[in-house]
From TrEMBL:
SMART domains: AAA, MIT. It is found in: Endosome membrane. This is Vesicle-fusing ATPase. It comes from Erythroxylum novogranatense. One of its GO terms (cellular component) is endosome membrane. Belongs to the AAA ATPase family. Keywords: ATP-binding, Endosome, Membrane, Nucleotide-binding.
Length: 435
């Protein structure tokens, strides 16, 4: 059955070339895309690697031509006298015309469209995460302050050969606070903050992904001082030469290398901040572009103790300093994310207790609190019955206790394995530094 896909693909491609030669670019573009869909489907079933390679090469040629037609159609230059070969030769003239328009003060429509798509990655409002909210990681915070805060407040410090750091790679196990640290940078820095993921920079159109990368960096330079944060950078910049690497992936990496090199050479006041859980998966050339490669490890004892307090916040509780210390000891090997999930679960414990309660006691303030049946003044009544009496706003869950944490920790396990930690520690010994 899969042979039909190839037959249909060839037929659509043949019609596309015919319409292309006739100058019907809009119709030709649609036919090229239909042909590519059939070729793509066929390749899922093709077992012969040589035939598959031939089909891919053909498909790449049709894809390139479809992209050229799309550029011509977007520019409004749809002259019917050009053949497909002539159109390829004429394409640089179309681009030259666009560049001249840009020099005359009118922005290239294609570039304007790309920038509009990237506009969503600019963080308009500060995340409100302060340095003090980040537990531990003193070395990482110190390095980032050197790169972000000091150059803005004391620019005269950085003269001659003394230049601030321009590219940071934050790596470590999942849930250790890499993205959280980036939010702190966005809050504390008086800079335009671009928060980017791989989906923001990957396009299905041939050649558009690298244009998105170039435009992102140009926008950052235009808005300087600015910070570009690339989360999960390994999704964009895996090792080159791998069997599953696509042409688009190679192009993105090459453009990113070029742009990062440019940032390092000029005084554009653009800081690159990237995070990854798999540093070994990064391409070596990309890895070298980062001045600082900082390991964000699992939180230590004091950091875990501090995290429990921060996540509890002003929620009513009866825990003492000794309780927090004991919780920190019991959560050895937990990531910051694990502790956050634990506290979130604990926060619901009083709600569950209130929901299941059969006895309540009325306080001096007129509030109803769940209690044991033996407690003085207890009334046998349920949450639903109190609600029916119109007392919903008077029901108060009990404060969080140490036993609430013990119940949750009895069923919760850390998410980071020893093998994961060994990999990151080995990478730190070879290429990085402790955070």
């Amino acid at each position: 059955m899969y042979c039909d896909f190839l037959v249909h693909g060839k037929e659509y491609a043949k019609q596309a070339v015919k319409e292309d030669d006739s100058g019907n670019y809009n119709k030709a573009f649609q036919l090229y895309m239909s042909a590519l869909e059939y070729f793509h489907t066929h390749l899922k079933y093709e077992k012969n690697p040589q035939i598959g390679k031939t089909i891919r090469e053909k498909a790449m040629g049709y894809l390139r031509r479809a992209e050229e037609l799309r550029a011509i159609l977007d520019s409004g230059d749809n002259r019917p006298t050009l053949t497909s070969n002539a159109a390829v030769a004429a394409q640089p003239k179309v681009l030259a015309k666009t560049n001249n328009q840009e020099k005359g003060g009118k922005e290239d429509p294609e570039k304007a469209k790309l920038r509009e798509g990237l506009d969503s990655v600019i963080v308009r409002e500060k995340p409100n995460v302060k340095w003090s909210d980040v537990a531990g990681l003193e070395n990482a915070k110190k390095s980032l302050k050197e790169a972000v805060i000091l150059p803005a407040r004391f620019p005269h410090f950085f003269t001659g050969k003394r230049k601030p750091w321009r590219a940071f790679l934050l790596y470590g196990p999942p849930g250790t606070g890499k993205s959280y640290l980036a939010k702190a940078v966005a809050t504390e820095a008086d800079s335009t903050f671009f928060s980017v993921s791989s989906s923001d920079l990957v396009s299905k159109w041939m050649g558009e992904s690298e244009k998105l990368v170039a435009n992102l960096f140009q926008m950052a330079r235009d808005s300087a001082p600015s910070i570009i944060f690339i989360d999960e950078i390994d999704a964009l910049c895996g090792q080159r030469g791998e069997g599953n690497e696509s042409e688009a992936s190679r192009r993105i990496k090459t453009e990113l290398l070029v742009q990062m090199q440019g940032v390092g050479n000029d005084d554009g006041k653009v800081l690159i901040l990237a995070a990854t859980n798999t540093p070994y998966a990064l391409d070596q050339a990309i890895r070298r572009r980062f001045d600082k490669r900082i390991y964000i490890p699992l939180p230590d004892l004091k950091a875990r103790q501090y995290m429990f307090k921060v996540h509890l916040g002003d929620t009513p509780h009866s825990l003492t300093e000794s309780d927090f210390e004991q919780l920190a000891y019991k959560t050895e090997g937990f990531s910051g994310s694990d502790i956050s999930v634990c506290v979130k679960d604990v926060l619901f414990q009083p709600v569950r207790e209130t929901q299941d309660a059969k006895y309540f006691v009325k306080t001096n303030d007129g509030l109803w609190v769940p209690c044991e049946p033996t407690q003085k003044g207890s009334v046998k009544i349920t949450l639903e019955e109190l609600d029916k009496r119109g007392l919903a706003s008077k029901i108060l869950p009990p404060p969080i206790t140490r036993s609430d944490f013990d119940k949750v920790l009895a069923r919760q396990k850390p998410t980071v394995s020893k093998t994961d930690l060994e990999v990151h520690e080995r990478f730190t010994n070879e290429f990085g530094e402790d955070g």
